[in-house]
Amino acid sequence: MTEQHFSAHPRSRSARSHLGVTHVDKRHDEEFTVVGNHLAQHPDLSLTAIGLATHIQSLPTGALVGIKVLAVKFPEGETRIASALRELEEHGYLSRTKERLPSGRIVTRTTSYNKPHLHPARAANPAPSRRHEPAPDLKEPEHPAPTAAPLPIPTAPVLHGHRTARNVLVGLRTRDPRFHLAEFDVRRLTPAVVAWLERGVAPDDVQRTLSAGLPPEGVRHPAGFLAHRLTALLPPLLPPPSEPALEAARPDPFQNCDGCDRAFRAHQPGRCRDCRTSRSAA
């Protein structure tokens, strides 16, 4: 009896399996990014960092990858995104350096590496492994972080001039559509505008000062930009009036008329205007 030999076909990645993941692979002819397994399977990077590195590598040169820009795109929030960027820096997938432009403005220059690129000092002292360190369960802040300096506070109750200050902020978008503020930001910045009004600045002058000389790259976060200007450009208090000015503003004292005994205001005693007129006519 002839012995039968069966030839088994090799199992493809798309074949079904009862154990583990099943792959269905299709060739990409356009719109794709090559990512190394050293990143996709990195033992010490969090999933947030791996996904963020993949996203950054897929972006064209010149794309903005700041923390606030990424927080608008993804639900993780600024805290987790900042932590993931630090992870990528520690493991050589990202570098961020500060540069001063000719205008004096300081910007951050970000470089993405599709293969780890460690600084010599970091290569000699690699970051400790965090394979078993659980990722913190951080909640995204509901509003932007406060500015370094506190906003100006009015001396009078906030209700004084509140409506005028609110109109100043809401009306800024008529000067420049980039100053479109949310209701929360209008309420937060209104007391600072009241402080400006208390110092003798007219509403139109407040709007003109806040919207003048905008940076050439535009305003990405109008509320933070206005908070900085309301704090940094706060005018000084008006000096108190001098003594001669106070004397000039003070009314004349009351005097009793020598003719009709009626009270009238004058620098010194004498006759009132009616008595002086009657005496002149006589």
Describe this structure in words.
It is built from twelve helices and four strands. α3 packs across α4. Among the domains are: 37-124, Arc Repressor Mutant, subunit A; 162-232, no CATH class; 251-281, no CATH class. A hairpin with a 6-residue loop joins β3 and β4 (263-265). The chain is mostly helical. The chain is rod-shaped and about 125 Å long. It has a two-stranded antiparallel ribbon.
List keywords for this structure.
single chain; 282 residues; mainly alpha; Arc Repressor Mutant, subunit A; two-stranded antiparallel sheet; two-stranded antiparallel ribbon; 12 helices; 38% helix; rod-shaped
How many distinct helices?
12
What is the CATH class name of the domain at 37-124? Answer: Mainly Alpha
Which class of secondary structure composition applies to the elements? mainly alpha
Summarize the amount of helix as a percent range.
25-40%
CATH topology description of the domain at 37-124:
Arc Repressor Mutant, subunit A
Low-confidence residue ranges: 5-10, 129-142
CATH superfamily of the domain at 37-124: Winged helix-like DNA-binding domain superfamily/Winged helix DNA-binding domain
What fraction strand?
Answer: 5-15%
Task: Work out the number of β strands.
Answer: 4
- State the distance separating the first and last CA atoms: 162 Å
**Biggest β-sheet strands, sense, barrel:** 2 strands, antiparallel
**CATH architectural group of the domain at 37-124:** Orthogonal Bundle
